[in-house]
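Re: [ENG-882] Designed sequences occasionally contain unexpected residues at chain ends

Forwarding the minimal case from QA. Structure tokens:
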């Protein structure tokens, strides 16, 4: 067998091994949750963007601490917000405050038993030299979601859930 063929086979095996490992990691470290605005949200504070859920069953039982978040929800878990059958915000990352990930797009931040739907995390003051770029990305991403934010707020106002 020529050395060229051996190299091709070695690269193929390496690629196949990496692909198999990454699939396993994604299944273990990720969960997808759904939130239905009419049924699951008790209130939303427009100023702080804190969401209070009607039932602790959605997330609260899973959030007794850092170990619980990592083992039951996973660091790469997401949540999708729905109005009836329409998805307003899809695959929004769930971010615990101790994570080192920075997001410049919509994120559900979980601090103890409180939930915040923010345009980015952490706050830009903590990003140092990346602050101005992060602010620009967050502004652009928020503008892309404006129509769905308006639907989200309108639906909550209709039900008297905005505080």
């Amino acid at each position: 067998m020529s050395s060229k063929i051996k190299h091709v086979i070695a690269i193929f095996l390496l690629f196949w091994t990496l692909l198999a490992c990454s699939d396993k990691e994604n299944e273990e470290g990720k969960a997808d949750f759904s939130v239905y605005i009419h049924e699951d949200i008790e209130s939303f504070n427009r100023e702080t963007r804190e969401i209070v859920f009607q039932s602790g069953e959605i997330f609260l039982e899973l959030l007794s601490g850092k170990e619980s978040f990592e083992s039951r929800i996973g660091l790469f878990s997401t949540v999708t917000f729905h109005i009836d059958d329409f998805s307003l915000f899809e695959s929004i990352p769930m971010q615990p405050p101790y994570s080192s990930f920075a997001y410049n797009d919509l994120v559900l931040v979980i601090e103890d038993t409180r939930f915040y739907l923010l345009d980015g995390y952490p706050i830009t003051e903590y990003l140092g030299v990346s602050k101005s770029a992060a602010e620009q990305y967050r502004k652009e991403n928020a503008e892309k979601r404006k129509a769905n934010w308006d639907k989200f707020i309108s639906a909550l106002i209709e039900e008297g859930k905005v505080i």
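QA comment: On inspection the terminal residues look reasonable. Strands lie at 32-36, 41-44, 50-53, 78-83, 86-95, 107-111, 114-118. Proposing we downgrade this to a documentation issue.
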